[in-house]
Amino acid sequence: MTNSLRVRLLWWLLVPLAIYVFVTGKAAYDNARHTADLVQENTLLASARMIAGEVEWSDGRLLVDIPPAALEVFASPQGDQVFYNVSVDDGRLLAGVPDFPARQAARHDSPIYYDADLHGKPIRAVGIVRQMYDNGAIRRVLVSVGKTQASRDAMLRELWRPQLVRQIEMVLLAVALACIGLTFELRPLLKVKEEVMDRDPMQLEPLRVERLHTELRPIVEAINQCIARLGLQVAAQRRFIADAAHQLRTPLTLLETQLQFARQHRDIEPTLSEALAAMQRSNRSMVGLTNKLLLLAQAEAADYTQLARQKVDLASIAQDVVEDLAMFAQKRDIDLGAELVESAWIIGHEALLSALVFNVAENAIRYTQPGGHVTVCVARDAQRVTLTVTDDGPGIPAEARSRVFEPFYRASSDTEGTGLGLAIAKEIVQAHRGEIALKHREPPKRGVIVTAAFFVDLM
Ligand SMILES: Nc1ncnc2c1ncn2[C@@H]1O[C@H](COP(=O)(O)OP(=O)(O)OP(=O)(O)O)[C@@H](O)[C@H]1O
Ligand SMILES: [Mg+2]
């Protein structure tokens, strides 16, 4: 069926109304037919009685003189044909057409009504019996009167048609009113459409709901909630771009200063080498930042349905990362350990999962004091595969805990970093439809536990 609200509502209205018109029309037709039949039968009976009343004995014979009034009762503009037959039970015809299909009721004192065919025309007829006594003789005279149906049909039409026409008019009126009403009542919705269409792309104020129908309000309120979320998203993106630009500007400015310095001291050999080494460091930090920005963009854009859906073993990914970080841990005098199940297969993106383990484990190593312990653990149960990284470092200050997953947010300024590591980790876990959480170890123990859980049944 079509999707037009107007057409669908009209169907809802029209179908029941059509059934109603059909049922009441049928009842009206039956009533009208009953009335027309009754009138016709009464006239036929009156006529037959008048004729029967005129049958009399004359010189021992039965005679009848048809009174004109007996036929005049049938006068109508439709010019029906009337037939009659008066005959005695011995077969003698007293008057009328001889081939009249006469019938007799079972009881002689009650009339019989019936449909018949005479000279190829359908007729409605009545038959009555009059008993005639004379000198002990009883004769039964059968009087039959029949007529064609034109006036009866005309009466039926006159009784029935106006009712049907009135009902059809009522249905048409209802449909017209429904159409007009709908056009009128849909106007607020069209206004909302225009308001949305005319909007400038960055206009993110909510749509007005005051003048809307109660039924439409939830829809517009849902759109408004969506606009509000979009607004937050746009603001977050603006903040992100500003932060990224700010982060890049620092090493770029530094590089500019270092370049100037190098040009001024280009003939002084050791100073030039130092300046070049500093420039390389600035450049490395910019490359690092750019790589992280790219990784974040990649993790944000990755959707589970579009991920390169391959089976990967999180345990072996973690093993590789731990090996890569071993040198860094050694340099910082951290005891880096791994507790890995033999295999922990999930569906995912290998490079992104590797970046996840790296970012979380590198944080644990970097923020834990020398002599500390860091454990990377991959476990598996029936439902999920869990990565847990535990350290015994200083932990994260309470006020910073809720913000560490935000891009560019850093809880400590005494170390180097971009503040993107945990934001990237969170995006990667979300792209795999997993869950990431950060907990603190119960005192007297110290340190942070980061867990990332992946659901096996998504495979
Ligand atoms: N294991 C940890 N122990 C203590 N503090 C942590 C730990 N992990 C993260 N943090 C704090 O959370 C902040 C955010 O971490 P995140 O990894 O997002 O950024 P970063 O390490 O500062 O920079 P990047 O990882 O981009 O080089 C860090 O600045 C640090 O203060
Ligand atoms: Mg980090």
From TrEMBL:
Catalytic activity: ATP + protein L-histidine = ADP + protein N-phospho-L-histidine
Listed transmembrane segments: 9-29
Pfam families, per database record: 2CSK_N, HATPase_c, HisKA
Recorded GO CC terms: plasma membrane
Subcellular location: Membrane
CDD domains referenced in this protein's UniProt entry, alphabetically: HATPase (cd00075), HisKA (cd00082)
Domain Histidine kinase positions: 243-458
Location (main, coarse): membrane
InterPro entries linked: 2CSK_N, HATPase_C_sf, HATPase_dom, His_kinase_dom, HisK_dim/P_dom, HisK_dim/P_sf, Sig_transdc_His_kin-like_C, TCS_sensor_his_kinase
Example of a GO MF term: phosphorelay sensor kinase activity
The protein's name: histidine kinase
Species this protein is from: Caballeronia catudaia
Phylogenetic lineage: Bacteria, Pseudomonadati, Pseudomonadota, Betaproteobacteria, Burkholderiales
